[in-house]
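F.,

This is the one I mentioned.
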């Protein structure tokens, strides 16, 4: 049986007269064939952007909000530009017979195959990726299991590229991060969103025609943390903004915050990171023990502020020397947070 996570067993690249690269998928006994020239479109550089309509991001948000405490997921349909940038035109949510747990999601294969056939035949949209949520976990990137299963599936199905979108739920809102997997490079890259205004031209038409085959999310209104849209070409116009002079404006500190995230996530199951709206400083919430940690404007000169049950804990002796991450970890160990 073909896995719903990756349906194609052979991928051909077709250049259309409109300059768009379409994927022709051979699935089971059905195939869509075309003339192709791999040298025109294949390169070793992994694209760093994914194009999506705002309405499809909001649809994904509604699906996640249906299941805030366990994983859910679905599939991504679209095509590629001549520069191999994926365009997501339709987000498919979970089928009724999907299997979910706090750490796993498996799509309803009958639901997937039925809609995949219809999207190919009616709109020439092809299966270019999957998505699933990590619900309240702070992990907004592929886990080791995610990466291994994607590369294995791509190799088995003869795919060189595939998308994975990780959704998160925290602070009663959702977020989404896209990752482009390349079998040639044996690597994946975190991609920036290029968000097109409005609804996908496929959504209304397809859902209306196939209302008997579509499970509509129970949640009617999306609730998303702000997701930045970048230009299609050239350098990004804006970076994530922090308070002027804040420690995270220094790109060298990105590695430090990753170590901090990993150290907390390894101990606790429900860890969330977000920027406070009032001053754009970083805050961490650990729901397991009702702990919150604020990295104040003067951090790392001043220590992080740690609260338990909304009561601020005392000073545990903040070191002035050493890497930021080591100082943070040592500080939390003194306060028995780590």
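My design for it:
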């Amino acid at each position: 049986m073909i896995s719903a996570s990756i349906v194609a067993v052979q991928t051909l690249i077709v250049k259309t007269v409109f300059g768009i690269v379409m994927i022709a998928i051979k699935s089971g006994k059905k195939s869509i064939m075309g003339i192709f020239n791999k040298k025109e479109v294949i390169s070793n550089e992994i694209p760093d952007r994914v194009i999506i309509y705002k309405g499809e991001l909001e649809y994904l948000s509604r699906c996640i909000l249906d299941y805030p405490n366990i994983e859910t997921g679905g599939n991504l349909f679209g095509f590629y530009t001549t520069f191999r940038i994926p365009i997501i035109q339709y987000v498919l949510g979970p089928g009724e017979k999907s299997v979910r747990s706090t750490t796993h999601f498996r799509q309803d294969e009958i639901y997937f195959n039925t809609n995949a056939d219809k999207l190919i035949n009616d709109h020439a949209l092809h299966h270019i990726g999957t998505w699933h949520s990590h619900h309240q976990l702070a992990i907004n990137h592929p886990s080791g299991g995610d990466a291994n299963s994607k590369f294995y599936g791509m190799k088995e199905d003869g795919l060189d590229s595939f998308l994975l979108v990780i959704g998160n739920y925290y602070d009663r809102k959702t977020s989404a991060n896209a990752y482009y997997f390349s079998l040639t490079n044996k690597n994946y890259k975190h991609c920036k969103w290029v968000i097109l205004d409005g609804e996908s031209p496929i959504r209304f038409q397809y859902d209306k025609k196939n209302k008997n085959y579509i499970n509509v999310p129970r949640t009617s209104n999306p609730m998303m943390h702000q997701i930045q849209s970048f230009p299609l070409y050239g350098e990004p116009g804006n970076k994530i903004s922090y308070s002027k002079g804040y420690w995270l404006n220094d790109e060298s500190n990105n590695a430090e915050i990753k170590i901090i995230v990993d150290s907390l996530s390894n101990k606790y199951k429900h860890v969330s990171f977000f920027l406070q709206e009032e001053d754009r400083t970083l805050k961490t919430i650990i729901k397991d023990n009702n702990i919150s940690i604020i990295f104040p404007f003067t951090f790392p000169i001043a220590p992080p502020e740690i609260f338990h049950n909304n009561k601020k804990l005392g000073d545990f002796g903040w070191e002035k020397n050493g890497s930021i991450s080591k100082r943070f970890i040592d500080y939390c160990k003194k306060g028995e947070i780590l």
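Residues 247-334 form one domain.

Talk soon.
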